[in-house]
Structures are given as structure tokens and as C-alpha cells.
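In the laboratory, one determines a bound structure by crystallizing the protein with its ligand and collecting diffraction data. In a computational setting the workflow is compressed into a single prediction: the sequence and the ligand go in, and a structural description comes out. We illustrate the idea with 3-methylbenzoic acid.
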Amino acid sequence: MNETAAIPELDFDPYASENLLDPYPMHEAVRDAGPVVRLRPYPTLVACGRHEQVHAVLNDHANFISGAGVGLSNFNLETPFRPKSLILEADPPLHTQTRTVLSRILSPKAVMQIRATFTAVAEQMVERCVEKSQAQGSICGIHDLAQIYPLKVFPDAVGVEDDGRENLLIYGDLIFNSMGPRNALLAKAAERMGPVTEWIMSHCQRDHLRPGGFGDQIYQAADAGEISHEQAPLLVRSFLSAGVDTTINGLGNALYALASHPEQYAKLHADAALARPAFEEALRWESTAQTFFRTAGQDTQIAGIPVEKNTKVLCLLASANRDPRKWPEPNRYDIERRPSGHVALGSGIHGCVGQAVARLEGEVVLTALAKRVKRIEIAAPHTRRLNNTLRALETLPLRLIPA
Ligand code: OVV
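The predicted complex, in C-alpha cell form:
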């Protein structure tokens, strides 16, 4: 029997607007069809939607490599749109070398040192939002909070100057779109690029980085011989690529989860210590990075099904995070769930190296809200920003009722 013929084929296009707007029916169909499926619009790839296989693929970096890119494009066949990331799009031993440096810079100890500042800024920004909501009747949860908070605290921590930070939003949008097909979303993101790449690369240079910040610490690692001086700017670029649009949308999705579940917000308001688990559950419920790919580095298999060398493997992270085989009542947002094992931040050697910073941002913003705001009301329907990889909101009109 030809086992490859046993792989179910579905008609879904994960990058069609309807599936970006509401991916959940597609996820359910993919999971129910089998542990591995094919999608007719992309006949060369295989996709996994169940938690078990997504987790297994992410934790088998020997068979499922990242060096050929973690988007749809196979860098063995197509030229990458930018010089490859030295951590995201790398495999051991290079990955081990760069990851060691980044994980020290972003370690729990480093996060303790930025905690007081991140907390103070969160409290200020929430206070301003409450005042604006009272003065004007509502705020935009995205523009007035989810976007401005990470755009201040993270570049401050990296040591990037204030001027031109809006370039980080344009760059993030492009990178995450570039992991999908060359569709209209990517074309539109690329149109806005103009001088952005140049701004990004010049701000990765040591003379643009505040001494002592995360960026400068990369150059200190180069001084110490852990990495080369040629590698340093590209590793700073990883901070600027991965550290802004991700947390913006993580926060935006968490605000949306809480605003649309007033009974959950009431629990958070009653006990601000639930801020961290509430953010974690939001990551599971609306995974910021919906998808990442791996590439079969050799002939291998998933759930006993053969997968040929060089096949792109689409890991539907957001689907794994709502797999009923893993989670009871997966579609419920429940801040008391404690969803350990979710894959919103990946898993295995490529699991988000900045996750301690990301969680800090989520925790302190939700804590500040819980303390200052009694109720969050939806003031008008939200709108979505479609992106090939990110689950993103464009607007989220909210009323904040102070405690
Ligand atoms: C978008 C993204 C995620 C993680 C890492 C990177 C980028 C990178 O450029 O290293």
C-alpha cells in the first residue's frame, strides 16, 4: 500500500481572508481529518493541527530543521527575502552558539532588573487610558495601550533611540507576512518598506545602541569572543524583529479576551495575582503567532506517515492550542486554567527566547488594569488587521470603568 496516498487532502487555504479572519473552523477540520494533512492550494507541504504532532515536530529539530526557513518558502529552493536570522532560521551548531548569548541577555535575572521600570510604565499608561476613556467616552485598546506599551519599554530595554520607532511596526508586519505566500498582504507590507530596512540595519549598529542595553550586550558578547563582530548586528536585528509586533498582538489579544469575557475580567479584578495566568491563557486561546513551519531535513515521518526530505511542514500552533484531544473545553477562555504545554511561544530548542520578557509585559499591564479598572466594556465592534502569520487586531474600542 502507498502510505502517502493515505494522507487526507483538504481544500483550505490558511492564507485566504476568511480563514485569517476566523481560523477556527479550518483548524477543527484539519485536526479531525488526521494527524497530518495536505492542503490542495499548497500541494508540496504537509500540515499538522493536533497538539501531539505539532509538539512532536517542534521537539524534533534533527528531523525538522529551521535553516531552510520557518515560513512557507523553502530557502533551499528560493532566496530568503532578507539575510537569514542567525537564531530563528538556523540549526545547531550555529543556533546553539547564538541562542546561548540571547538567552543570557533575556534571562530571568535580566528580567528582574527591568521589572520595576516595565511596571511603572504600565501603571502610567493604564492611568492615561482610564483618563482618556472618561474624557472621551472610550479608548482604542490597540492604539492607546497594546501598541504603545511594548513600543516604549522593549526598544528602551534594547537601547534603541526614540526617533523612528514606528519603523519597528512596519518591519514586524513585513516579517510575519513574509512567512506566508506572496499574496496581496505581503505585497502591501512590502510597499510600505521604503527606507525601513535601512533604518532597522543602521539601528543594529553599536553606535546607535545605548551602552548596557540588550543590544549593546550583544556587542559585549562579541568582544568576549562568544560570537563574531559580523554576527552582532544580525542578532540585534532578531530583537527588533521578534520583540515588538509579537508582544503588541499578545497584549491586544489578551485585552480582547478579557473585554469579551466580563466574568473572567471580574475574577482578575478581584485578584490581580491572576494577571499572569490570564495572559498565559490568552496566548493559548488566541495564539499571536498562528503558524510556524519546519522543513524535513531528511526522509522522516510524522505519526508513522512518511514525510520526504525537503517537505515543508506547517505547524498550526493556534490549532494545537485548541485541540480538544489536549484541552478540556478548548474554546473557553478561562483565566484559572493554567494552560501549561501550550505552544503559542513554540516548544523545543527554538521556543521563544524572549518569553520571560513577553510574560513580564503581559503580567504588568494586566496587573495595572486589574487594580485600576473595575470593568472593561466593549464600546464598538473590533476590527482585524490581517497578517499571514499573526493574529492581530486593528482597533478595539473599549470603555474602562475605574475602580
Ligand atoms: C519574527 C521573528 C521571530 C523570532 C525570531 C526572529 C524573528 C529573528 O529574526 O530572529
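Residues 108-136 form the longest helix (29 residues). Keep in mind that any predicted model is a hypothesis to be tested, not a measurement.
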